[in-house]
Every structure is written in structure tokens, then in C-alpha cells.
Design brief:
heterodimer, A: Rossmann fold, Rossmann fold, 2 domains, 7-stranded mixed beta sheet, 6-stranded parallel beta sheet, 14 helices, 13 strands, 19% strand, B: 6-stranded mixed beta sheet, 5-stranded mixed beta sheet
């Protein structure tokens, strides 16, 4: 009998030793996933976040209606969340407003197109996130893997973009990889073709930015043919562009964004990393697509190693 | 109309039930055995192979040429792989050695082959950082590190293969998991993270193709050897005869001078039996 009691006590003692939320650094409630809406594209990143974060998660959904925010806030803030993962623009913006006076609650946003437009990090140190765009550096590196001889790269952007900090950062990253940037700025989409003709003779490759002034259907179609004509390595950020003739594109691995967000969440909650210190990250997981028909047309021989890295090969 | 007695109806019902049962048994009776095509799952995040559709095509083609039908499925994400393993019981699985170690002895998944590559049964990973980064061991904690996941025991494995000897705890580092080695390599090359842990072989390949890409990074630590992925089978999911044929096909492929393309793609050129 005494032996049995002793055994039970030993088991209880070890159970007590097991890590709880607090032992993991979770000094408040659960991790909250706040969805903007029910969308198929959110499913995989949210699933990978929940699987990888390794902490208790509660899910809430705005169902596309910001009017639901006050009632949801009441429910969520009954217990202070350890962190909020805001999925989509509406959720990100509402999480920003909710935590304006409670900046000890960290927020990570994902799946927000053009996040700068919502001034999400302005005035708040508790917000970090993952942008929807692959960093230009990642695109350059992938391009150099497929076409190692590229030395000069052309970019056409809006005058606003050319004046901003982004272009300076792109230049710095390009220099890091031994690339020289040739930039031409435009004020209207119809100036694109003229600007490209000026840039083309001076470069070996061309990066099609996701700038709305540059990336129109008409321009994308024209550039694909023009790059072949001018024997240029042409890179972009959408698989569809490669499918219709662009040589290479590097896109974010959307399902994996949840895992990256989970890594960031653990670093914030457990290792006390500050969201501001992390800043808004580019997605690190990539999907590469390449068009081998275009490669043949511009006389580019692609090695096996980068081909194996490509997630999609178009060769018609 | 001549209607027979109740006995005839009874024997007709019996025969009908028997016939129907046989049909059902043939269709669903022994999943994974002779009647259905064996499934072969592949998950190897440290390999340079990300083109799963090409891998799928080559693998299916390779087995087809040997007269062996197989349903091949490759995974990039650990979560998808784990979910699928739970849902179905694939006949064969190529998985990282750390994943196999997590399964434990009670699992129905048993080792079939321990592969080799260029005469080695293991590979090493290298810790890279920017050349501009003045690294000291005591500054490693709180640095951001990009790497592929090694499952739920990543930190323990990391400490064992790399950090224990330095007195550093991987749990103090800000680890960010990436789906493939190349992502970690590029992230450190362009300064998105402080450190990256990547396979030596992928670094060498990248350096051979374009040395500029890694011009700004240096290696600071080398891991102890990590076992190459293990090819396993699931007990009860395929007949011993079908397993033997599968084994023979692979063993025959590894000795040839002109090795099949598929072996180059999965970076394996030798198979050593691992069954007891």
C-alpha cells in the first residue's frame, strides 16, 4: 500500500515538473490566431503555424466584418493573449488598434498584400510580420544561380519608388552580390516600353517589379517577348509570368509562411526577442519556377543543380 | 410459373452473399497487399531536390521500367509529411535519420536500407555567417539562425551535433525554420539572418556554380556527422514478396556504371540492407 502511494507521489512529482505555459515563458493566455475571413489561401499557413508554434492556440474569425471586432475583442481579451497572429489585412489592422494601448501584446501579421499601405508598424513597437513579397536579394541570388554571368540588371520603377528607401536597399543588396543596377523611372504605365528600350542595351538581365505602374497585363506580355528578342534574362515574382514566357520567378512559399511566423512567435514569447528588433521580414521560404523554352531561346544553358531547386519547370 | 421452395431462396441468398463478399474482399480486403499499388513517400529537406513533379515523374518511370508499379509522393513540408504518414500506411518511406529516430522501437515503420553517397553514410552541416559579422562564441545566443527543421527534437540534435562542445545552448538562439537548404543559404548570403546551418554538399555545389553568391559569407563551425536518410517499410502494408522485388530493384540500380538519373536526383548512389 505504502509502495503504491509512493509510486503515485513520484508520478505526481514528475507531472508537476512537466513544462507548463509559464515554464515556456508564456506568462499570459494563449496565442491567438485572428483571421480576417474564411479563405482557402489562409488554411495552410495557419495550419503550419498552429502545428509549429508548440503553444496553446485559440482561433477567432472576423468573417470579413470589422464590425465584429468589439465583440471579439471582449472575448479574446478576457485573458491577455500571449501573442496575436493576424492573418490578412483586416485582422492586422484591427490587431494594431487593439494593442495600441497594450503594446506588451506582440502582434505578427501575415498574408497582408502591400502591408506598408496600412502603416501597421507606425507608432507601435509590438508589431512585426512577414511581407508577401520575396526580397529583391533573394530574387537576385536565384537569378545568379540560373544565370551566373549576369553583371548588370535593369529595373523600371515609379518615380515615387525611385525616390524612396526601397531602391537604396535594393542597390545595396545588388552590390553585395556583385550586381550593378541600371534604373529608369516612369510616371505613367504608357512610358514603360520607352523606358525599357533605353535600359535594355545596357543590361544582361531585367527584373519586373510588382509595382502597379510597371506590372500591367499589357506590359507583362510585351516584356516577355521583348526579353527573348533582346536575349535578356528576365525575372519576376509570379509563377504565371514564367508560365507565359518569363525565364524565372521566385515566389513566397505561402504554406511555409505559417512556420516562419511560428518561429518568430517562439522567439518573441520564449526567447523575449522584441518585435521591433525583428522588423517586418521577407518570406524566407521560396518557390522557384523556370521556363526552359525561354532559356533555350536566349541561349542559356541551365545546370542540373539549380534545375533541381526549381519547384516548377515549364518546358511545353 | 414454377416457384421453388424456401431452401432454394436460402441457397441463392447464401451464394449471392458469398459472391458479394468475395468481390468486397478483392476490392478492399488487404490494403497495401498484392491487389493495390504500393505507396512510396519521400521526405528529405536537406536534399537540393525541390522539383517534386520531376522527381515524381523520374521515380515512377524508374520503377515502371523494372515492371514495378508504385505510387510515389514527395513532400517539402514536414507537417504535410507527418499528416500523411498518420493518415495512410505507405509501403515504403525515405525519411531523414532524425525523423526515424523520433519514431522509436514500437513503430511499425522499420528500416529497409541505409543509403550511401560518394562512399559516405553520413553528411555534415556547416554554420555560415556574414564575413562582415565579427563572431564570438558568447555572441551566438540571441542571433538569428535559418535552418531546415529536424522535427520536435531539433534543439537537442543541434546541441549534440554542434553546440554542446562549445557550451552554447541552441535554445537561446532565435531559430527560423525554412523549407529547404537553399533558402537558408540565400538568407545568410543577403543578410536576412545572422547565421545559417546548411549541408556542406549544397554549399560546394553553389560555390561551384557561382562563387559570387557565397562571396560574402564564411563558415564558422562544422557539425559532427548526421546519418543520411533511411529507406523504411511499414510492417503489414506490403507483402514480403513485393518488398523483396522493391529491394532487388534498388540494389541492382546502385552497382551500375551508368546510374539511373533518379539516384543522382535524390543524392544516393548506394543501398545497404538495414533489415534484421
Amino acid at each position: 500500500m505504502i509502495g503504491k502511494l509512493l509510486k503515485i507521489n513520484i508520478i505526481l512529482f514528475f507531472l508537476w515538473l512537466l513544462p507548463t505555459g509559464n515554464a515556456l515563458g508564456l506568462d499570459s493566455g494563449s496565442v491567438v490566431v485572428l483571421l480576417s475571413d474564411t479563405m482557402e489561401i489562409y488554411q495552410k499557413p495557419v495550419a503550419s503555424f498552429c502545428a509549429d508554434v508548440g503553444l496553446p492556440v485559440k482561433r477567432y474569425n472576423l468573417h470579413g466584418d470589422p464590425k465584429q471586432a468589439p465583440a471579439l475583442k471582449k472575448k479574446i481579451f478576457r485573458e491577455k493573449p500571449a501573442l496575436i497572429l493576424a492573418v490578412g489585412a483586416k485582422a492586422a489592422y484591427i490587431a494594431k488598434i487593439w494593442t495600441r494601448r497594450q503594446q506588451d501584446i506582440p502582434v505578427i501579421f501575415i498574408m497582408v498584400l502591400d502591408w506598408q499601405r496600412y502603416s501597421l508598424t507606425e507608432g507601435q513597437d509590438n508589431i512585426t510580420g512577414i511581407s508577401m513579397e520575396i526580397s529583391p536579394g533573394t530574387q537576385f541570388a536565384n537569378m545568379l544561380l540560373f544565370s551566373p554571368r549576369v553583371k548588370r540588371l535593369g529595373i523600371i520603377c515609379s518615380t515615387k519608388f525611385a525616390a524612396g528607401t526601397q531602391l537604396r536597399q535594393i542597390r545595396q543588396t545588388a552590390a553585395l552580390l556583385g550586381l550593378e543596377l541600371v534604373v529608369n523611372s516612369i510616371g505613367h504605365p504608357r512610358e514603360f516600353k520607352r523606358a525599357f528600350k533605353e535600359v535594355s542595351p545596357r543590361v544582361d538581365a531585367f527584373l519586373m517589379l510588382n509595382d502597379p505602374l510597371v506590372l500591367s497585363l499589357d506590359n507583362a506580355d510585351w516584356i516577355e517577348q521583348r526579353c527573348v528578342k533582346d536575349r535578356l534574362v528576365c525575372i519576376g515574382q509570379a509563377e504565371e509570368l514564367t508560365q507565359f514566357g518569363m525565364l524565372l520567378s521566385t515566389n513566397p512559399d505561402i504554406p511555409y509562411m505559417g512556420s516562419q511566423a511560428a518561429s518568430m512567435a517562439r522567439n518573441i514569447i520564449i526567447r523575449r526577442q522584441k518585435p521591433k528588433e525583428i522588423g517586418v521580414m521577407a518570406p524566407l521560404g521560396t518557390q522557384i519556377s523556370v521556363n526552359l523554352e525561354t532559356a533555350a531561346k536566349i541561349n542559356l544553358a541551365v545546370e542540373n543543380f539549380p534545375l533541381h531547386m526549381a519547384t516548377k519547370i515549364f518546358s511545353h | 410459373m414454377n416457384i421453388q421452395g424456401g431452401d432454394d431462396i436460402k441457397s441463392f441468398s447464401f451464394l449471392f452473399t458469398l459472391f458479394f463478399s468475395i468481390i468486397l474482399l478483392c476490392c478492399y480486403g488487404s490494403p497495401g497487399l498484392a491487389s493495390s499499388v504500393p505507396e512510396f513517400y519521400y521526405f528529405n529537406p536537406d536534399s537540393s531536390q525541390a522539383n517534386l513533379s520531376e522527381l515524381n515523374e523520374e521515380m515512377t518511370d524508374f520503377f515502371e521500367k523494372q515492371g514495378y508499379d508504385i505510387s510515389f509522393q514527395a513532400f517539402v513540408h514536414l507537417q504535410d509529411f507527418q499528416e500523411q504518414i498518420k493518415k495512410s500506411k505507405p509501403a515504403f518511406i525515405l525519411m531523414p535519420s532524425w525523423y526515424f529516430a523520433e519514431l522509436g522501437d514500437t513503430s511499425k515503420i522499420k528500416p529497409l536500407f541505409c543509403p550511401g553517397h560518394h562512399g559516405h553514410k553520413s553528411y555534415t552541416k556547416v554554420l555560415l555567417t556574414s564575413k562582415a559579422f565579427k563572431i564570438a562564441i558568447n555572441t551566438l545566443p540571441r542571433k538569428s539562425l535559418a535552418m531546415t527543421s529536424m522535427g520536435s527534437r531539433t534543439l537537442t540534435i543541434l546541441n549534440r551535433i554542434m553546440f554542446d562542445k562549445l557550451g552554447v545552448d541552441a535554445a537561446e538562439m532565435n531559430i527560423i525554420y525554412v523549407p529547404k537548404d537553399l533558402d537558408a543559404l540565400i538568407a545568410v548570403a543577403i543578410g536576412q539572418v545572422d547565421l545559417a546551418l546548411v549541408c556542406q554538399e549544397n554549399i560546394s555545389e553553389l560555390r561551384r556554380i557561382n562563387p559570387i553568391l557565397l562571396g560574402g559569407v564564411k563558415s564558422i563551425l562544422k557539425s559532427s556527422p548526421i546519418g543520411l536518410p533511411i529507406l523504411c517499410y511499414t510492417e503489414g502494408s506490403t507483402s514480403p514478396a513485393a518488398r523483396d522485388i522493391f529491394k532487388k530493384i534498388l540494389l541492382n540500380s546502385s552497382g551500375k556504371i551508368n546510374k539511373p538519373k533518379i539516384l543522382e536526383m535524390i543524392q544516393i548512389d548506394d543501398w545497404k540492407t538495414a533489415e534484421n
